[in-house]
Amino acid sequence: AATGKGVNARKPHIEGVKDIIAVASGKGGVGKSTTAVNLAVALANTCQLKVGLLDADVYGPSIPTMMKLQGKPEVNEDLKMIPMENYGVKCMSVGFLVGKDSPLVWRGPMVMSALEKLTRGVAWGTLDILVVDMPPGTGDAQLSMSQRLKLSGALIVSTPQDIALIDARKGANMFCKVEVPILGLVENMSCFKCPHCGEKSYIFGCGGAQRTADEMNMEFLGEIPLEVGVRVSSDEGTPIVASAPDCGVSEAYKHLASNV
Ligand code: ADP
């Protein structure tokens, strides 16, 4: 999957890492981290790739909780941090380095030096793909990160309502500016299927992401439904792709992984 269409020949600057892809969103709270986690687990377990997951969401790291990992990373003889592993994915997060409840009041240069430590200061080993959970938005930090990481591609996550899609467009335009290929747009929380009567409700609207993708010449990578199980498994640190690999929503994540 990772080396398939969409990913260009840019060479990432981390030794042993073949491709780096960003999971990004114009807005917070649309399910970017949840998508990054389940995508990484699906790439490792279904596509049988060697996968790393970097939590670059320095202002709100959620990978430690979502991947049920805690503590401080060990350091090897080359003074590189050893990533922590769960569900077959090697993880690194700024959340491992700071207290759970401490706010990060860092300015741009500190964010960049943290990113440097979290990428090149880590003993990733050989990876087919490093999935990066980006901070939401299109500010300075996101822009410099996109350039510094030498991304092979970016995947944009949005919910279906206009207000989120407007920001998703901004995100896509940011990556275009720094010449990072857009792998496509994923619609998260696309519809809700009532567990009692089975009726589908399009709580945040219907078809908006597909339209936006068409208008912007981006690939539409699919829909992830709004499901209680996704939220519960994220909170418990057992990504749904790992804990219920055969359910409908896990199939949607696996489909996404095979399209990246
Ligand atoms: P972001 O990274 O964009 O800020 P998160 O991935 O942290 O967003 O998700 C925000 C909240 O929405 C979390 O509580 C998460 O569990 C929940 N969530 C994300 N995607 C879904 C989904 N498809 N169905 C149900 N809940 C979801």
From TrEMBL:
Cellular localization per UniProt: Mitochondrion
Annotated keywords: 4Fe-4S, ATP-binding, Iron, Iron-sulfur, Metal-binding, Mitochondrion, Nucleotide-binding, Transit peptide
GO biological process: iron-sulfur cluster assembly; mitochondrial respiratory chain complex I assembly
Cofactor(s) required for function per UniProt: [4Fe-4S] cluster
Superkingdom, natural source: Eukaryota
Entry GO terms, CC: mitochondrial matrix
Entry GO MF terms: 4 iron, 4 sulfur cluster binding; ATP binding; ATP-dependent FeS chaperone activity; metal ion binding
Main location class: mitochondrion
Sequence similarity: Belongs to the Mrp/NBP35 ATP-binding proteins family.
Protein name (Swiss-Prot/TrEMBL): Nucleotide-binding protein-like
Full-protein interval shown: 32 to 291 of 309
